[in-house]
Write a structure and sequence with these properties.
With 270 residues, the protein is mainly alpha-helical. The protein contains 12 helices and 2 strands, in the order H-H-H-E-E-H-H-H-H-H-H-H-H-H. It binds zinc ion (ZN). Zinc ion (ZN) binds next to loops. GO terms for molecular function: nucleic acid binding.
Length: 270
């Protein structure tokens, strides 16, 4: 904004709440509170050796973390239970996804405030929540404009995004580039001397390349990683979880960008 509109910005530091009567009152009260002994534990209470339980299960670890974990799990359960996430009602599919790491990657980096990143983040959230204005969604949202005759932008036959016959060459291009990207990233990060052919074979063997399999690589757009992929990376990049997470983020960004530029934007131009 500053750059586009050539704004002149002058930063002036103002001392917070200076000479504000109410603020002085609050400061005084806070000071008083700090001096007061607010939590009193009776000695007799310490004699009781009790355990906190949740649903008849004793909480053995930090109760605050347990409560946070339960809250998170309930939220995810609620989200996956929505009609739009019907696909996850298949236990076989749920088992293929490494939820622990996938959910960890779902956290949005709040320090990342670049406009371009924000734009991509928005796109990503829309994908995760099935909110992209696809043909299927538009028909639901705007019944008066989109009637039954609206079909795929490319072939006008069906309602699909990845499987369209007309974009199979683009798909192949994306998959080919993605496989190469995976091999290269493994080579770059792994400190061991690797046999390139062996790594290529391992990448090729992943089930996710087949769009007809239960879990395919398009799930990566929703931050959902398969055990198979995570295990493959762990096999070569054994350093630590932080590095692994960073690589997984890179992989996801790559596929989202490919999808955005080569399929989504191309589709919307038609
Ligand atoms: Zn089509």
């Amino acid at each position: 904004m500053i750059r586009i509109y050539h704004f002149n910005i002058k930063l002036v530091k103002i001392k917070a709440h200076s000479n504000n009567e109410n603020n002085k009152k609050v400061d005084k009260l806070a000071k008083l509170g700090m001096e007061k002994e607010t939590l009193i534990i009776e000695d007799t209470l310490l004699l009781h050796n009790s355990t906190i339980c949740w649903q008849d299960m004793p909480v053995k670890y930090n109760p605050i973390l347990i409560i946070k974990g339960i809250k998170n799990a309930q939220f995810i359960d609620e989200f996956l239970g929505l009609n739009r996430n019907e696909i996850y009602k298949q236990p076989e599919l749920l088992e293929l996804i490494d939820w622990k790491i996938s959910l960890k990657l779902n956290c949005i980096d709040q320090h990342n405030t670049l406009f371009e990143n924000h734009f991509l983040q928005l796109f990503r959230i829309k994908i995760c929540c099935n909110e992209l204005p696809t043909c299927v969604n538009l028909k639901k949202w705007k019944l008066d404009i989109y009637d039954e005759s609206w079909k795929c932008n490319f072939c006008s036959i069906e309602e699909h995004l990845w499987r369209c016959d007309k974009i199979q060459n683009v798909m192949q291009y994306i998959v080919k580039g993605f496989k190469l990207f995976l091999v290269n990233i493994i080579f770059e990060i792994s400190k061991n001397d690797l046999d390139r052919h062996q790594v290529e074979c391992k990448v090729e063997e992943l089930d996710m390349w087949d769009l007809n399999s239960l879990y395919d690589f398009t799930f990566l757009l929703k931050n959902q990683l398969s055990h198979q992929l995570v295990d493959l990376l762990k096999l070569y990049i054994i350093t630590n979880t932080k590095v692994l997470e960073k690589i997984l983020k890179l992989i996801i960004s790559k596929i989202i960008l490919d999808f955005k530029i080569l399929i989504w934007e191309y589709r919307n131009e038609l």
